[in-house]
């Protein structure tokens, strides 16, 4: 083994965390103790005497990282090496940093430790800022944002405010922004978060950058964004589309609805424009709307919208609007049932809306099915209107074994006929009953034909 190969092997033993981790890490009662010891080992093993050693180390580091099956911890190691060398010799530490920049940051490293430990005075802060902004390289905006996370409070002034705004505006890749580290800037400019969120939402909307803001920020955002509710709503919708599990418990969603119930229609309309987003996890929070007072008006408008927009989908399967009603808390179930009854009263003459209502009742409120039929008949006995409603759905039934799809439909129509028989409207329902009997005969006829075809097909 020649000296260079030997050096690479030794470097590998020091830098690769996972090789030893599986064997030894869990021998420690506190696994974090292993991480601390590993950091100490790396820091002590890679202190350089000159720039030539820096170049050799970086080339070796890049080679090992590219060869690693799991390179997750390698950039943590590089972070420790840069910080440790900077602590002993600023010129050498900066030389490592410059090697990364000169290489266009091909290792996808983000600076942390050198900023965390060395942005305490003006001279060092200016020096580090000049180095990371002197030329362009990959993830440069993320380096700059990381710089502002750790800049000492005492150094913040209007000049740094402008630089921060500029850095956020330069982000050109999927990036997480941790506003918890930027609260110190509010002391100089109370509107800084409002400015930054405007930039972020514009970049996300116009350039599809996907800048992600952590959930905790939005939970307290209204006051921090100068009570700009429209901006909060825009940000929330964007973040929900970017991150499937954003606001998983629905806390932010409910906070916005408490201030503006009309947001329900805005959210569902925007979110469901893209069919890829349906059933993505964001819809789970929609069942929480019953915790909001006076949500019924907005929910009614939302259902109206979907009824007119997706009438062709309502007959088949479980429509997305069931999400507002399925498995809701028992405390709100009667309130939801009252809403559905009123929706029937308000819309009995609109077949599209009635079809959506019946879809919801059939899949999420089966105990209400009989009430809705009788309630509908109380207001109209128009057989032509009755015929336009998918009382038993229209396809999508799963049939197993020798059970006939047509027999199932005939049984469902018999059930509806028995429900109608409970009405006291008498003779005025004869046309509807005749229509149902025709349906039953039609389905039984097809069921018999199907059985004959199946029997003959055996021979």
Sheet having the most strands: 2 strands, parallel
Helix count, DSSP H or I runs of 4 or more residues: 24
Whole-number mean pLDDT: 87
What is the rounded distance between the termini?
78 Å
Number of strands: 2
Query: What fraction, in percent, of the residue positions are helical?
Result: 55-70%
With strands numbered from the N-terminus, the spatial order across the biggest sheet is: 1-2
**Low-pLDDT regions:** none
* Rg over alpha carbons: 33 Å
Q: Which structural class should the secondary elements be placed in?
A: mainly alpha
Percent of residues in beta strands? Answer: under 5%
**Helix and strand run:** HHHHHHHHHHEHEHHHHHHHHHHHHH
User: Assembly type of the shown chains?
Assistant: single chain
The general outline is: elongated
Give a quick set of tags describing it.
459 residues, 24 helices
List the helices and strands and how they pair.
Layout: H1 3-15, H2 17-24, H3 31-45, H4 51-67, H5 74-88, H6 90-102, H7 113-118, H8 122-133, H9 140-150, H10 158-170, E1 175-177, H11 192-207, E2 211-213, H12 215-219, H13 221-224, H14 229-242, H15 251-259, H16 263-271, H17 296-309, H18 311-314, H19 330-347, H20 351-364, H21 369-379, H22 383-387, H23 405-420, H24 430-457
Parallel strand pairs: 1-2
Helix pairs in contact: 3-5, 4-6, 5-6, 9-10, 10-11, 11-14, 14-15, 14-16, 16-17, 17-20, 19-20, 19-21, 23-24
């Amino acid at each position: 083994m020649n000296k260079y190969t030997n050096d690479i092997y030794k470097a590998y033993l020091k830098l690769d965390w996972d090789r030893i981790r599986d064997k030894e890490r869990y021998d420690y009662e506190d696994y974090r103790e292993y991480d601390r010891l590993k950091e100490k080992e790396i820091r002590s093993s890679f202190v350089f005497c000159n720039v030539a050693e820096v170049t050799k180390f970086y080339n070796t580091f890049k080679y090992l990282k590219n060869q690693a099956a799991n390179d997750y911890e390698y950039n943590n190691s590089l972070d420790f090496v840069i910080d440790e060398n900077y602590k002993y010799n600023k010129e050498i530490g900066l030389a490592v940093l410059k090697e990364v920049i000169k290489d266009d940051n091909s290792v996808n490293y983000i600076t942390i430790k050198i900023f965390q430990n060395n942005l305490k005075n003006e001279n060092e802060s200016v020096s580090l800022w000049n180095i990371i902004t002197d030329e362009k390289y990959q993830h440069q905006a993320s380096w700059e944002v990381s710089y502002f996370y750790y800049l000492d409070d005492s150094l913040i002034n209007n000049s740094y405010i402008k630089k921060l705004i500029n850095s956020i505006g330069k982000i050109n890749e999927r990036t997480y922004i941790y506003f918890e580290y930027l609260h110190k800037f509010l002391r100089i400019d109370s509107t800084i978060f409002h400015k930054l969120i405007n930039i972020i939402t514009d970049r996300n909307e116009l350039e599809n950058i996907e800048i992600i803001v952590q959930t905790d920020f939005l939970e307290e955002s209204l006051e921090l964004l100068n009570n700009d509710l429209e901006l909060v709503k825009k940000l929330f919708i964007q973040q929900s589309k970017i991150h499937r599990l954003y606001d998983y418990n629905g806390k932010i969603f409910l906070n916005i609805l408490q201030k503006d119930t009309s947001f329900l229609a805005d959210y569902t309309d925007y979110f469901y424009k893209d069919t890829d987003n349906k059933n993505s996890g964001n819809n789970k929070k929609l069942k929480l709307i019953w915790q909001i007072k006076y949500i019924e008006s907005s929910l009614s408008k939302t259902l109206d919208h979907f009824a007119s927009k997706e009438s062709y989908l309502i007959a088949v399967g479980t429509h997305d609007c069931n999400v507002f009603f399925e498995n809701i808390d028992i405390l709100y179930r009667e309130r939801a049932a009252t809403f559905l009854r009123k929706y029937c009263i308000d819309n009995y003459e609109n077949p599209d809306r009635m079809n959506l209502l019946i879809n919801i009742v059939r899949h999420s409120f089966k105990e209400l099915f009989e009430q809705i039929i009788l309630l509908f008949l109380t207001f109209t006995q128009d057989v032509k209107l009755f015929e336009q409603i998918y009382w038993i759905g229209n396809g999508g039934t799963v049939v197993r074994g020798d059970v006939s799809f047509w027999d199932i439909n005939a049984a469902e129509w018999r059930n509806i006929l028995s429900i109608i028989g409970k009405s006291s409207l008498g003779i005025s329902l004869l046309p509807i009953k005749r229509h149902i009997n025709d349906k039953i005969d039609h389905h039984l006829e097809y069921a018999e034909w199907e059985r004959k075809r199946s029997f003959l097909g055996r021979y």
